[in-house]
Automatic annotation (TrEMBL):
<dbReference type="GO" id="GO:0003700">
    <property type="term" value="F:DNA-binding transcription factor activity"/>
</dbReference>
<dbReference type="Pfam" id="PF13377">
    <property type="entry name" value="Peripla_BP_3"/>
</dbReference>
<dbReference type="Pfam" id="PF00356">
    <property type="entry name" value="LacI"/>
</dbReference>
<feature type="domain" description="HTH lacI-type">
    <location>
        <begin position="3"/>
        <end position="57"/>
    </location>
</feature>
<dbReference type="InterPro" id="IPR000843">
    <property type="entry name" value="HTH_LacI"/>
</dbReference>
<keyword id="KW-0678">Repressor</keyword>
<keyword id="KW-0804">Transcription</keyword>
<keyword id="KW-0805">Transcription regulation</keyword>
<dbReference type="GO" id="GO:0000976">
    <property type="term" value="F:transcription cis-regulatory region binding"/>
</dbReference>
<dbReference type="InterPro" id="IPR028082">
    <property type="entry name" value="Peripla_BP_I"/>
</dbReference>
<dbReference type="InterPro" id="IPR010982">
    <property type="entry name" value="Lambda_DNA-bd_dom_sf"/>
</dbReference>
<protein>
    <submittedName>
        <fullName>LacI family transcriptional regulator</fullName>
    </submittedName>
</protein>
<dbReference type="InterPro" id="IPR046335">
    <property type="entry name" value="LacI/GalR-like_sensor"/>
</dbReference>
<keyword id="KW-0238">DNA-binding</keyword>
Length: 335
């Protein structure tokens, strides 16, 4: 005999309506009650009849997630935060990536129509509201993550890459480094452009006599390794290298190690994001900490408020300020 919603309500000592609200992600349920309901539902192996529920509520109980890529620790951590909240609310995830291709991004967004109740979107390519309106239904609840689109009528959660880059350059300058090279990200990527802008402005303000030294990168280890090799072949090497993300910093670290260059004794090295691996390499990487999983968790909670009862103001703009984490890869330069 199959378990019903009434069985869950009886075991959890709540009403059927409360069980329904808890499992559908509504915000007007106390967190302790929600956890008890989810725990009982799992214990009883209760499985809602999604087809029938969709017909009655016009909901799919599925959240769409569209990301630039799924490779790397940043996206792994982001998905961990999103998935944790989705599982707590008894929801499914429909995940797609478009590997940095604007046309594929549009295809991914259109593929979500009618299949999800709301959408989380991280895109360095979304620059206008027109792009969203052309590819998504007007009523689709949407939360943007790290996009160049102005807040407008959309909820956005953005890492303040500009402030983070300025803070890192300040740390390196305070440690006595003057020749600070920067490994940037893709030219059309919003995060990369903000971090590059922060680096340039900080160099102009703090080290006006030093020339900015920018090397191309692609947010992956291979491009960081290439940048490290380019720095090694320069007539004069930098005092410090600041990579726009940790993956490139780790690639650069490998290039420096291969050449017998000591970090930080010969060249200091810093990254951005604080992926889990950053603290376990040798030397441990100085970086700007972004609470990546928390970014995903906060974004999906905001989305579920829109899906549930519309309590979340869709114009919410939440800037997430990274925190400087100093580890062994940077130190005071020798005069």
């Amino acid at each position: 005999m199959s378990v019903t919603i009434k069985d869950v309500a009886r075991r959890a000592n709540v009403s059927v309506a409360t069980v329904s609200r808890a499992l559908n992600g509504h915000q007007n349920v106390a967190e302790e009650v929600r956890k008890r309901v989810v725990s009982v539902a799992n214990e009883l192996r209760y499985s809602p009849h999604h087809a029938a529920r969709s017909l009655s509520s016009r909901r799919t109980n599925t959240v769409g997630v569209v990301l630039p890529d799924l490779y790397g620790e940043f996206f792994s951590e982001l998905m961990r935060g999103i998935d944790q909240v989705a599982r707590e609310r008894g929801l499914h995830l429909l995940v797609s990536s478009y590997h940095g291709n604007p046309e594929e991004q549009g295809n991914a967004l259109r593929a979500m129509r009618g299949r999800v109740d709301g959408l989380l979107l991280m895109s360095p390519f979304v620059g206008t509201e027109d792009f969203i309106s052309e590819n998504l239904a007007p009523a689709m609840p949407l939360v943007l993550m790290n996009t160049r689109l102005a807040a407008g009528d959309r909820a956005t959660f953005c890492v303040d890459g500009y402030a983070g880059a300025r803070a890192m350059v300040g740390h390196l300058a305070d440690a006595g480094h003057a020749r600070i090279a920067f490994i940037t990200g893709p030219a059309d990527n919003f995060d990369a452009s903000e971090r590059l802008r922060g680096y340039r402005d900080a160099m102009a303000d703090l080290l006006p006599d030093a020339e900015p030294w920018v090397l191309p990168g692609d947010f992956d280890e291979a491009s960081g390794h290439r940048a490290g090799q380019a720095l090694l072949s320069a007539a004069q090497r930098p005092d410090a290298v600041f990579a726009a993300n940790d993956m490139m910093a780790l690639g650069c670290l490998f290039a420096l190690s291969q050449a017998g260059v000591r970090v930080p004794a010969d060249i200091a090295l810093a990254g951005f994001d604080d992926i889990p691996l950053a603290r376990y390499v040798h030397p441990a990487l100085t970086t700007m900490r972004v609470e990546i999983a928390d970014l995903g968790a906060r974004a999906i909670r905001a989305l579920l408020e829109q899906v549930g009862d519309g309590a979340q103001d869709p114009r919410t703009h939440v800037p997430l300020v990274p925190k400087l984490v100093v580890r062994d890869s940077t130190t005071k330069a020798t005069p």
